[in-house]
Amino acid sequence: MFQKLREKAQRPEYLLTAVFLFHEVVLKEASGSPWLPEILFTFLFSLVLGCIGCLICTLFNQKTNKIIESVILTAEAAIFITFFFLYRQFGVFYDIRTVLAGAGGVMSSFTDNIKHMVFCADGIIHIILFLLPLFIYLFFIPGSEKRPWKDKVPIIFLAVSVWMFNMVFIIGSDVYQSALKKEYSFQTSVRHFGLLYTLQTDLIRNTGSSKTGFTAEETPEPTEKPEETPLPTETPVVYKKNVMNIRFSSLDQSDPQLVEMDTYVQSLTPSSQNEYTGMFKGKNLIMITAEAFSEYVISEELTPTLYRMMTKGIQFKDYYQPDSAGTTGGEFQIVFGMLPTAGGNSFIRRTGLNNIMTMGFQLNLQGYNGWAFHANSATFYDRINSHNSIGYSNGFMGYGTGMEEYVENVWPQSDVETVTGTFPLYADKTPFNVYYMTVSGHNEYTLAGNAMARKNYDRTEGLPYGEEVRSYFAANLELEDAVTFLIKSLEEKGLADDTVIVLSADHFPYGLENQGKLEELYGFVPSSELERDHNVLMIWSGCLEKQKPIVVDTPVVSMDILPTLLNLFGCEWDSRLLPGRDVFSEARPLAFNLSYDWKTDLGLYRAASGTFIPNDENAEIPEGYVDTIRDIVRNKIEYCRGFSQTDYYSHVFPDE
Known about the structure:
By secondary structure, the chain is an alpha/beta fold. The protein has 25 helices and 15 strands. It has 2 domains: 206 residues, no CATH class; 294 residues, Alkaline Phosphatase, subunit A, CATH 3.40.720.
């Protein structure tokens, strides 16, 4: 029996298929991915790849083939080890572009965190598992013998047959067919079809021609008949549309992708201005993207300033911050109002392009003084270039370009030192427009690996958590102290009523994803990506504390921040050019992510399973509603993809 197994192992189609499938199973178990029927797709794709490998590994003599097979198995093991640790670190599968965009910075800035992940029982066990087939092959299995092409015909036939069978099976299901084509995302594809298939798919998609795939949209019928409008007792207010005078017919028609985007934009109904339009016009703006922040940190006792901002500013009851491409992806959503369809390269790609719809550019047009700040390395994610391209008149300052004057070089750096050091730069230069990307809340969440956790750990005494979650709270207390200083300083200068502070996370605290720590923080196990990414959005100003609370209880997503601020600050903008909505307009509430999950005021749709869960079991859902919203989400993501692939605003505003 052993001899037969040995003989089959010498056949690369068996050897490679077995190794590929083994690695996929290990990764699937480690990530908690679904098993049925997904494991069948993974097995069949592994078999196809094994057959392709066979064609390569039988071209030469046995010695050379041994080398080729060793290289393939080594590279394949390295890939799985890399993506395993990326998942352990971030809690999601990031695409190739995101991995490459942050690889250098991760290796240089997070070496201690990497060592902690690798040199622990979980890390060592999985490294052994991924390397085990390679060692068995190197020491116990000879290389494959050279085969004539006539002997390879059955292998080619097998590969083609298996591929076609798998595709027929996948295409027969709306859920899996959509995940393969119209609703493709790296994250979902890995869970459904395996890492190796997804990597080659992602590579093909990224190197193929740029094109869009918009779908004609239909408007779903309302769920209830509108109430009868009473006879007006006074002249009703008629609000203008948030639309600009864009002459699409006179724009350059040479690029088919831009023409498709024009057609899509023109098909949209612009949203209207409203009673909140221009409410903050002329006020100062401070935008804060808070590293790995979570709503579960906030309490009146532990974080009174954050609690004050959440409860006495504009209150968002159902806010989502999708984790699409780590920190740079979260920043991209907030700054540009778009999903990062180019992964970790999304923000970098905007360098030198027309970014006129950012708050940096829009308020700069109104004569604001602008600054962008970050306490970590100015070159990480190439912020030294990308963040100098988003419109802030005084540019970007990071560690290495001025921030080192204010913050100590520890890991992570202090938000308090960042804010106290930079506040004097703009406090007397009103109106000012400031952007902070914080860092104190970054993982790892241990006393040994996090200077902010060590600094504030005693203040978490009595919290019902272990060291990691308490360290997470302690690290975020640095943000609490930073905004406390900020608001106190604004009040002392008499600027609080004339300053708006906007705070949102970049992503959920994925540093707690391992070993149930995230569930310890949340108090429950998230059942979907959107539930995991539920967070808090704060829009606060001293002037808001003096009036009746403004409450937004419909679903809101990070892409809604930019259009909402453009409306509140009375900017000239076109609501058709942004996939998000001004939350005070009549536009449909719609939170969505790159996995094609979405939520409206009627319910939640999970793309991975193709299920729609109504908010109210007794609610009447209009016929065709789910399919219509799916089409809308697909189009919005296609538009984001077109935005990432082109300089669309230069096309639309050729004279800017």
